[in-house]
Amino acid sequence: MVYQHISVPSEGAKITVQHNGSRPILDVPDCPIIPFIEGDGIGVDITPVMRKVVDVAVKQAYGGKRKIAWMEVFCGEKAAQLYDGEWFPSETLEAIKEHLVAIKGPLTTPVGGGFRSLNVALRQELDLYVCQRPVRWFHGVPSPVKHPENVNMVIFRENSEDIYAGIEWKAGSEEARKLVQFMQKELGVTKIRWPDATGVGIKPVSEEGSKRLIRKAILYAIEHNMPSVTMVHKGNIMKFTEGAFRDWGYELAQQEFDAQLYEGGPWVVIKNPKTGGDIIIKDVIADAMLQQVLLRPSDYSVIATLNLNGDYLSDALAAQVGGIGIAPGANLSDSIAIFEATHGTAPKYAGQDKVNPGSLLLSATMMLDHMGWGEASELIVQGMEAAIGRKTVTYDFARLMNAAEEVPSSRFGECIIQAMQQVA
Ligand SMILES: NC(=O)C1=CN([C@@H]2O[C@H](COP(=O)(O)OP(=O)(O)OC[C@H]3O[C@@H](n4cnc5c(N)ncnc54)[C@H](OP(=O)(O)O)[C@@H]3O)[C@@H](O)[C@H]2O)C=CC1
Ligand SMILES: O=C(O)CCC(=O)C(=O)O
Ligand SMILES: [Mg+2]
């Protein structure tokens, strides 16, 4: 494909995919083209560090036989400059579709008015229905809790539905008024307190959307030998959306994984076909879950939840293991994957070479694992743990540690590289 502003690297080749059932099997050449979006705000600080560290790790792990051919694609502020005010160029979407594996920095979304989230748009346009966010403690990382080592959870956040579908109308608009009138006249709704001045949002949650997400969570628990999958929901209040999510989850476990009632139900238990061990499928109401993860984190491993709960839970859990400076993630469909940090553009730090590149870097390790380049991924994790162990850390960790040396984002990357080179 010929692009307007994207330069395709001459030395690289495309990753391709085949499907074994619903399981994607990637064919990764030695020099894959990986599209990346630099990101707004602190994107300019963290993305170059991520690329540099990944390049060194790949070179070191494979003795120069493998190499990533980075291809910059554009979204957000940089796109608007380049494409004459277009924030979300269609060729960016096409490039990611064609190359299957990409990584991105954060993108700004205005609050209240303005355009809708580009991050959410990417997920929806490419049907990246799983937002997978692992949360675990890395040795030496400062934490506000006593036992951060007890936190080892992987959040599966539904990424395509819920109130993130963006179906909402402003208070006082013609559409909101019409919808309120329809609800009152046709559906007998009497509970809208100020009908003429109410914004209205719709929360779509489907059986198919819920089941495909919960299926992925269960398969992950099987693959990684994890003891439980917890469905987190607010189904006592939102019965036909959040409550249905839970019910469809139990139904799926029975239909597809031969689940049996656990201690009389509603929890169920399935057998892990790989190990013969039990996996408990359970549910917890979202507000209670926020205290459970603080007080009894070791009771939870895989979490399956809807979009908004997953958004809240991922930042809250990240805090327990050191903050959103070290919180990676992936957005996945059955063939395409975009890796990105949990955090946003942190505008007050933009361009200061100050913030922690750790979240994006760990997202890159998830990307390398996804590509089957686990040796390079492991090197980065080792390098990062060593840099943290030496207390050469960015401001977010330095302010929680005694006698740490606060270093800029770029220097933190160099410390990781030095540490990786000593591993060899
Ligand atoms: N996927 C995406 O691209 C996302 C985009 N966003 C967007 O980002 C913008 C800003 O959102 P905001 O609510 O401020 O949330 P942010 O996640 O951008 O920042 C909130 C705070 O988190 C800490 N933080 C964030 N990133 C890092 C890092 N790399 N290293 C260390 N600390 C970090 C900082 O804390 P402190 O002040 O304590 O130093 C920062 O002030 C919004 O437009 C939002 O929509 C938000 C989330 C995800
Ligand atoms: O799209 C945004 O601006 C925010 C998204 C977000 O907070 C997230 O995905 O965790
Ligand atoms: Mg968020």
UniProtKB/TrEMBL annotation:
The Isopropylmalate dehydrogenase-like domain covers which part of the protein? 33-416
Q: Which Pfam families match?
A: Iso_dh
Hey, where's the site called Critical for catalysis on this chain? 164, 234
Residues where N6-succinyllysine is found: 104
Q: Where does Mg(2+) bind?
A: 311
What is this enzyme's catalytic activity, as reactions? D-threo-isocitrate + NADP(+) = 2-oxoglutarate + CO2 + NADPH
Q: Which UniProt keywords apply?
A: Glyoxylate bypass, Magnesium, Manganese, Metal-binding, NADP, Oxidoreductase, Tricarboxylic acid cycle
Q: Which domain of life is it from?
A: Bacteria
PTM N6-acetyllysine: list the residues. 146
* Subunit record text: Homodimer.
- Protein name, as recorded: Isocitrate dehydrogenase [NADP]
What organism does the record attribute this protein to?
A: Marinibactrum halimedae
